[in-house]
Amino acid sequence: MSTKPSCIRIPITDMPPSANAMRSHFYDGEKVRSVKSKPYAAWKKAAAWEIAAARPGRICGPYRLYIAVQRDWRSKRARDIDNIIKPVSDALVAAGVLSDDHLAEEVNAKWADDLGGPAVIASIYVAGLGVS
């Protein structure tokens, strides 16, 4: 008999690009087109492989996502914490940990001073269980 995990903790080695850098825009005749930026697509693919390789499990249905992000990760450049949420959510879906990010009932992101190596640690709880 298998049980569904009530919490999954996932370290992600590299810092995600800002949500501001997720798309590239260009003119195609009279229209402005938008595509995923190459740096974002490369980060998402690498992060999804890293996550999937760890075989963390899967949470189907509503969930709560808590993201801790290493402060001053390899740079003293200021970043906005809210611009890290979407790339992390997308990588979790791409890795198969979450079925769809529209099922998030709560999302929280915070800076951390010492995560012990990874750039990001995502903790995902089945909605109704775990941290409140």
TrEMBL record:
<dbReference type="Pfam" id="PF05866">
    <property type="entry name" value="RusA"/>
</dbReference>
<dbReference type="InterPro" id="IPR036614">
    <property type="entry name" value="RusA-like_sf"/>
</dbReference>
<dbReference type="InterPro" id="IPR008822">
    <property type="entry name" value="Endonuclease_RusA-like"/>
</dbReference>
<protein>
    <submittedName>
        <fullName>RusA family crossover junction endodeoxyribonuclease</fullName>
    </submittedName>
</protein>
